[in-house]
Amino acid sequence: MPEWIVDLFARYGYAVVFFGVFLENTGLPVPGETALLAGAALAKFGRLSLFWVIVTAVSGAILGDNLGFAIGRRGGRALAKRHGPKVGLTKKRLEQFDRFFERHGPKTVFVARFITGLRVFCAVLAGASGLKWLTFLFYNATGAVVWATAIGLVGYMLAYSWDTLERWVGDSGLIALAVIVAIGVVAAIRQRKARTT
User: Which residues contact 124 (CB under 8 A, 6 or more apart)?
Assistant: First the structure.
């Protein structure tokens, strides 16, 4: 494990896990999953408690996602309309996104927790989509508990091989993202074909 991570945890302990996960889930590209993995790995060495690392990560994930959801609900739509076209989010794509969230929103909130990249933006997108907050909260909290427990256990078990651990978790998240993108592309192609026939 890199020395700077050990030093950070020596100074701030569980706060590193909480703020890493919290900030990532509000929509900032902060390495929250790495903070959770490092906290769990240090628990293996007796520096922290695995139980409290997981509880801290769950708390950070739920609170961060709810803040992200609120940001999306209050201003996400206006931002998407104003700046979306600059990054390829046209009006038509925004409408497709709305239809997708109407049909698959709750499942997406749960699954996004495990996907690198999507985890950062999902809460903001869910808030902008008009998904009901209680529905979001249930799937978000459930996903947070499963994700934090799974990643925490992996970090704890593979603590002696930090390089393998980071590579395995990073690769699995990127593979999941690629699969989701492929499914989205296939669905969009099928929808377009259905309209033309």
Answer: 27, 68, 69, 71, 72, 76
Q: For the chain, report the end-to-end CA distance as a whole number of angstroms.
A: 56
Which pTM does this prediction carry?
0.73
* Residues contacting 105, CB < 8 A, separation 6+: 126, 129, 131, 135, 136
Asked if residue 16 lies in contact with residue 9, where contact means CB atoms within 8 angstroms, the answer is yes
Phi/psi of residue 153, nearest 5 degrees: -65, -40
Q: Residue with structure tokens 């993202």?
A: 177
- Tens of each residue's pLDDT in the chain, 197 residues: 556 566 677 778 899 899 989 988 887 877 788 888 888 888 888 888 999 999 999 999 999 999 989 988 888 777 767 766 776 667 777 777 777 777 777 888 888 888 776 777 788 888 888 788 999 999 999 999 999 999 898 888 877 676 665 565 454 444 444 444 455 556 556 666 766 66
Q: What DSSP element (H or E) covers 96?
A: helix 91-112
| CA–CA separation, 186 and 197 (whole Å) | 17
- According to DSSP, residue 129 is labeled H
Token readout for 53 is 């690392």
* Number of domains into which the chain is organized: 1
State the residue range of the domain holding 125: 3-196
CB count within 10 Å of CB 154 equals 18
